[in-house]
TrEMBL record:
<keyword id="KW-0436">Ligase</keyword>
<feature type="binding site">
    <location>
        <begin position="218"/>
        <end position="224"/>
    </location>
    <ligand>
        <name>ATP</name>
    </ligand>
</feature>
<dbReference type="GO" id="GO:0005829">
    <property type="term" value="C:cytosol"/>
</dbReference>
<dbReference type="GO" id="GO:0005524">
    <property type="term" value="F:ATP binding"/>
</dbReference>
<keyword id="KW-0315">Glutamine amidotransferase</keyword>
<dbReference type="InterPro" id="IPR022310">
    <property type="entry name" value="NAD/GMP_synthase"/>
</dbReference>
<keyword id="KW-0332">GMP biosynthesis</keyword>
<dbReference type="InterPro" id="IPR001674">
    <property type="entry name" value="GMP_synth_C"/>
</dbReference>
<feature type="active site">
    <location>
        <position position="164"/>
    </location>
</feature>
<dbReference type="InterPro" id="IPR029062">
    <property type="entry name" value="Class_I_gatase-like"/>
</dbReference>
<feature type="active site" description="Nucleophile">
    <location>
        <position position="76"/>
    </location>
</feature>
<comment type="pathway">
    <text>Purine metabolism; GMP biosynthesis; GMP from XMP (L-Gln route): step 1/1.</text>
</comment>
<keyword id="KW-0658">Purine biosynthesis</keyword>
<dbReference type="InterPro" id="IPR022955">
    <property type="entry name" value="GMP_synthase"/>
</dbReference>
<feature type="domain" description="GMPS ATP-PPase">
    <location>
        <begin position="191"/>
        <end position="382"/>
    </location>
</feature>
<dbReference type="Pfam" id="PF00958">
    <property type="entry name" value="GMP_synt_C"/>
</dbReference>
<dbReference type="InterPro" id="IPR004739">
    <property type="entry name" value="GMP_synth_GATase"/>
</dbReference>
Amino acid sequence: KILILDFGSQYTQLIARRVRELNVYCEIHPFNNPPVIDESIKGVILSGSPFSVRDEKAPIPNLLEIKGKLPLLGVCYGAQHLAHCFGGEVMASNKREYGRANLTSVNSSNELLKGISLNSQVWMSHGDTIEKMPSNFKVIASTSDVENAAFEIEGETAYGIQFHPEVYHTTEGSILLKNYIVGICGCQQNWTPDAFVETTVAELKEKLGDDRVILGLSGGVDSTVAAMLVHKAIGKNLYCIFVDNGLLRKNEFTDVLKKYETLGLNVIGVDAGEKFISALAGVTDPETKRKIIGNAFIEVFDAESHKVKNAKWLGQGTIYPDVIESVSVNGGPSQTIKSHHNVGGLPDFMKLKVVEPLKLLFKDEVRRVGKSMGLEDKFISRHPFPGPGLGIRILGDVTAEKVRILQEVDHIFISGLVEDGLYNEVWQAGAMLLPVQSVGVMGDERTYESVVALRAVGSTDGMTADWSHLPYEFLAKISNKIINGVKGVNRVVYDISSKPPATIEWE
Ligand code: XMP
């Protein structure tokens, strides 16, 4: 595997994904909490960082067991750190070095740069530059503004590059990464979805034996793929619980339940809608609504899990971005994410041991694993849907009637997106029922009914998002369908706010 030491760059996860795309396994560890360096590690990558090597609090890794012993590649800050620590000079650069640049010289006989063309576009993002190289550092590529754009350390298998090979705009970045990972580190490209399924199922069999496992399904990809893996390992000893909180999309509960049955999963479907709706009666504060929904879920799940005698494990669809230890920005000790098992005062199911078969995978890898296990594209490409469901899309208090209205509106919108081939163009879409009535006229009658807002956004991770520029004709058609088809709604608006400053959900 490849070890990536993280100095807090926003691109670190992207490096890891690029390595994984080459079918090579890698792990991200904080620079100040590295794993034991053993022979499973074939090479190391030092990430970028928001810090300058000249900062007082600049992150400093311990490379004693790495430099000169294992192949090493420093990217951006990583490269500057090597130059700075081993006799070179890193200074604030007087030219802007952000964005596109082209390689004006390339030593293509160098192992790292084999196949990289002269003029190749690279992506720069740094405020500092390596002014003076240590005497045993040899330049292997330059751009017009950055002479020391890439270097090799003589007598070692160590390299530094000032540009970011992991970003899309470095057009030959994946060639460079492949040269390093496969050519220089000698990694086998055998980390494939099929191989992952095979080894994970074998490990789960070994770990779980004849034990019973409980797993909460949400209808989303992560929990579904986690369940499929555990099911493949232990079959009927996996008990899945799927709760209808009364806040799901129209027909979602029955449709998804059917889907789970065709996958052969042993699913207990719990229809708890009334419990949730009555717990929410009269509550308008968004955070209180979230807490009520969360607590009701825990109660229902706990009661159901008690019906499974002798359960030993709780299966969870946790994925890699949730468990990567973050590098804290002030350079202090990094946070560790703790699993919440064996803690007193929790519902009984939380006292079970936790099994998380996806905790090494990125979202796109979860999808590929799902696909390799036979999950169809339609299911894999479903939009994200928040846990509290329509509860946080009905602004203000929630009633069964409002849920019904919003389910109809959402159904018209989503099925319209599918019919017009727009569903996969959009990262997430949904409708909000506003606590506002407006005047309208239908036939000869004045109406005074609800307003709904449609929201569709493009995003990669939900952290930032922009509103989708859906065609006017499409919006016109959907608006018409909603107003004519859903009693209680006489006005439709489209949300054109980006995140930030708005959020995707309205509550
Ligand atoms: P916001 O509204 O914060 O949403 O821009 C970002 C993403 O997170 C989802 N979301 C939630 N998911 N429980 C969830 O499981 C929640 O309470 C919750 N709030 C927001 C939202 O749908 C979007 O994908």
